[in-house]
Amino acid sequence: MAIWITPFVIVFILIIGITVYGIRKTSKANVLVDGRDEISEAIEEHPFTLNPIIWVILVATVFIGFVIAYYAFS
Fold first, then answer.
1. E strand segments, the chain
2. Max avg pLDDT among 22-26, 46-50, 57-61
3. With a threshold of 0.90, does the pTM exceed it?
4. What number of helices (H) and strands (E) belong to the chain?
5. Are 63 and 11 in contact (CB under 8 A)?
């Protein structure tokens, strides 16, 4: 199991990076004069592509798939 520490750390850093990038990207909301938040055009057009939770699930699923495939073929 010690062989999975380095890949796990790399995936963990990648997930943290995706989360920080997603939070910074989506938290830049423009507050209008009447107190409402304006939704950026990128989020209006593609609300699921900028969701960091979906990207984290995708990265974790790919990593788990690699681990399962490694043990299945070895």
1. 30-31, 37-38
2. 57-61
3. no
4. 3, 2
5. yes
